[in-house]
Design brief:
The complex is a heterodimer of chains A (410) and B (106). Chain A is an alpha/beta fold. Chain A has 7 helices and 24 strands. Chain A has helices spanning 11-23, 133-145, 165-179, 201-213, 257-261, 301-318, 374-391; strands spanning 2-7, 29-35, 39-41, 60-62, 71-75, 78-82, 87-90, 96-98, 101-104, 108-110, 127-128, 149-155, 186-191, 217-219, 224-228, 233-236, 241-243, 246-250, 253-255, 286-288, 332-339, 342-348, 357-359, 367-369. Chain A is globular, with a radius of gyration of 21 Å. Chain B has helices spanning 28-37, 45-61, 67-74, 78-84, 89-96, and strands spanning 3-7, 10-14. Chain B has a two-stranded antiparallel sheet with strand order 1-2. The chains are: A alpha/beta (410), B mainly alpha (106).
């Protein structure tokens, strides 16, 4: 029997386990997936919890419900990857798992302790996050009684997962305080190390205008060194300061510690891979998928989804000694919730920036690209159902893995 | 969209954001003039330590390094980098080193 070992049962790992369990012969292959947690979080839903749109139970399901029959799931911490020995040491029973092929899908995680001052004293009091389940729940509680002041959303470092979420958060905050009839008591500011609201020029311009229309301040090119929790200021490496009453931070994101310990990561423990095939640059039987890989595109579920489709086709060739002829183009597709029941859709890849136009989707669409619409909001809300019922289970989605120019205005 | 411009007596091809298209056209005299264009002059040993690292890293990795990569691998603290190349050191050092703008992955 050949052994395929998948590390991480999040979005990427679960999708690939489902797809490959259908494609690989059960007589010839044993598939094992390891994860330290039993709970699968619908991470895009964290954004809605602080505003009471979703409750804490709306974003969780047991991981096991999504692992297909015939795939062994082990719940354990992963201690060490030993690529030279083709094995992984896990904490459970202190045992080794041997593999012929390894897929690393251990994701990326917020690390607030990386920034001095962030977790010292004021954490979850005047300093909050919304990229974790606990953080989103704590923030919901905070916002319910907050009486206004300077609310600052800040990004500590690139890359971070779901690059549009901080914008969505601040758009929703604008709506939330309007609804509560206290928008005039709240000053909203987005502080980012990027030169604008987004990296790609046309999206940055449109999203920048949207911020202005909503009376939200933007402080670009601000790279924070530390937070002074007593004086309630963010301090940059150039000693500029941004004062706040309530700081909502997107902490530094790092890949899993085990990646670094095992010598497989870059400076932030993301795994260097070929950006078209996901094959490790160091070992020819290791792939990294989803947020765990150091791809030059968004760390987001949609990217993991498109990447997984390209990956499984290639993997079926690769194990037969054939060339990996499918090439991932960096396709990302994101609904940006913009508040007041509207959303914006962007669709882009390594080479083509988000463009305006219409995004065709058989039976449901079209959706407006780079433009606010109610339809885009419904697309976003519908996505949770699609995530649990179609995407994670590895079923076909009516969107191609490679980005299409159809409907886009160039 | 590309354009050309004279630096240190050489005709250099630039991309639409003014970054050099071809790192092979770069030399130290070009670097001095590029730096002067963004208000950094003259280049000191501190600058050269960072530039040399970025050139070498680009050679092996195929792209301009990120800020964190420079601080960790070249051993220059972030604060120091901001003093040497104020307002966006990763971008500015790439510019002076004749490299493409770092992708700043998002």
């Amino acid at each position: 029997m050949k052994k395929l070992l998948i590390l991480g049962a999040g979005t990427a790992g679960t999708m690939v386990a489902n797809k490959l369990s259908h494609m690989l012969s059960r007589e010839e292959w044993k598939i094992t997936i390891v994860d330290q947690h039993e709970t699968h979080y619908y991470q895009p839903g964290f954004l809605f919890i602080p505003f009471g749109i979703y409750g804490e139970n709306d974003v969780i399901k047991p991981k096991r419900d999504f692992i297909p029959q015939g795939v062994e799931m082990i719940v354990s911490e992963i201690k060490l990857i030993e690529p030279e020995e083709n094995r992984v040491r896990i904490a459970k029973d202190d045992r080794f798992l041997y593999y012929d092929f390894l897929i690393i899908a251990t994701g990326t995680h917020p690390c607030p302790e990386e920034t001095p001052g962030l977790t010292e004293g004021e954490w979850r009091n005047s300093i909050h996050d919304f990229y974790t389940h606990e953080g989103a729940i704590a923030l919901a509680k905070k916002l319910r009684t907050w009486d206004g002041g300077r609310l600052v959303v800040n990004i500590m470092e690139l890359p971070y997962k779901c690059p549009v979420a901080p914008l969505e958060f601040i758009f929703l905050a604008d709506w939330y305080f309007h609804e509560r009839q206290m928008r005039d008591k709240v000053e909203l500011t987005l502080v980012t190390p990027l030169p604008g609201a987004f990296t790609k020029p046309r999206a940055a311009q449109l999203l920048g205008n949207t911020l202005e229309d909503k009376n939200i301040n933007l402080v670009p090119e601000f790279y924070p060194e530390r937070v002074d929790p007593e004086r309630k200021v963010l301090v940059s490496y150039e000693d500029e300061e941004v004062p706040y009453d309530l700081l909502i931070t997107v902490p530094v994101n790092r890949g899993a510690d085990v990646i670094g310990i095992s010598g497989l990561g870059d400076e932030l423990n993301h795994v260097p891979v070929d950006k078209h095939t996901f094959l490790s640059t160091q070992f020819d039987n290791i792939f990294a998928l989803g947020d765990a890989a150091n791809l030059p595109t968004s760390k987001a579920g949609s990217v993991a989804h498109f990447a997984a489709e390209v990956f499984v086709e290639n993997f079926m060739r690769y194990i037969e000694g054939q060339e990996m002829i499918s090439s991932f183009d960096g396709h990302a597709n994101c609904f940006i919730e913009s508040g007041f029941g509207k959303g914006i859709l962007i669709d882009f890849n390594y080479d083509v920036e988000p463009l305006p136009g219409k995004f065709p989707l058989p039976g449901i669409g079209p959706f407006s690209l780079l433009q606010e619409s109610e339809m885009n909001h419904w697309g976003k809300m519908m996505f949770r159902w699609m995530y649990w019922n179609i995407l994670l289970k590895g079923k076909e989605m009516p969107i191609t893995a490679q980005m299409s120019m159809a409907g886009k205005w160039n | 969209m590309s354009m050309t411009k004279e630096f240190a007596g050489k005709t250099i091809l630039l991309d639409d954001e003014g970054f050099m298209e071809n790192p092979a056209e770069w030399d130290k005299a070009v670097a001095e003039e590029l730096a002067a264009e963004i208000g950094i002059s003259p280049l000191t040993d501190g600058h050269w330590q960072v530039i040399d690292f970025c050139r070498a890293d680009h050679q092996s990795q195929g792209e301009a390094p990120t800020l964190r990569r420079i601080t960790q691998l070249a051993g220059v603290p972030t604060k120091e980098l901001y003093k040497l190349f104020p307002k966006g050191p990763a971008k500015k050092v790439a510019f002076v080193s004749g490299l493409k703008k770092p992708t700043g992955c998002i």
